[in-house]
Amino acid sequence: MERNTITLGVMGVLGLAELITSGIFGLSNPLFGALFVFILPGYVIAATVFDLRTWRLAERILLSVGLSIAIDIVSGLLINLASDGLVTTSWGAILGAITVGGALVALVRWWGKPKRRQPDAAMPPDLRKKSFRDTYFASPLVRVMALVSIVAVAGAFAISLFAAQHTPSAGFTQLWLLPPADSASVQVGVRNEEQTTKEYNVQLTASGSPVYTWNNILLEPGQTWTVTAPLPTQVANSSFQVPVEATLYLTNAPDQPYRQTLIWVGNSG
User: pTM of the prediction?
Assistant: First the structure.
């Protein structure tokens, strides 16, 4: 059996293993996956187009790496459209599938095909020497592949730039509780930094017992609500530290605390 056939068979088996482990079991090894990022997909795709048996090793490596990177870019654009996004298992599954498919096509195409005869070493130098363009870009297919790679790189850069500029930041809600200074009162505050209007309930407790409750606090994005609440006398004049806690709830989930903050009030001695 020809060595090139064995090589494609091994790559096909590796691609199938990566497809199964990533796509079915959700497992992906970064070190093993590097082969699929930089070598295997590009090699099998090149083998479906060219007779790599007559190519030098350096030429095979360069073409494999270049095509693999182009395949990575296009695959990344497709994966990003899926709900799971750019995760390692998705990368492993799609690159494994490309490797398996490319290896099968290349095996069918080159199975039993005789190896092309190498150029005669005695050929005159003026006939053997060719320009870089004539050597690597003589085929229209190669030119198309180069154009597709350039467009893919430019498209990936443009999409990444657009996404970075237009990705919405994660919203949050601030809740604070300021301890008393010279008075027996605390200040409770809420600020809505979410992306939409929110309605809140706030409860103030001392030693676990409810002291105040404020309901249906409606805040637009960027709005702030504050209130100064006098503390009960037994809490403000307590001879020991008393926990005072503010708890924030969303009105549509009144039993699920959304934010909490705690201070200690009273004499420490």
Answer: 0.45
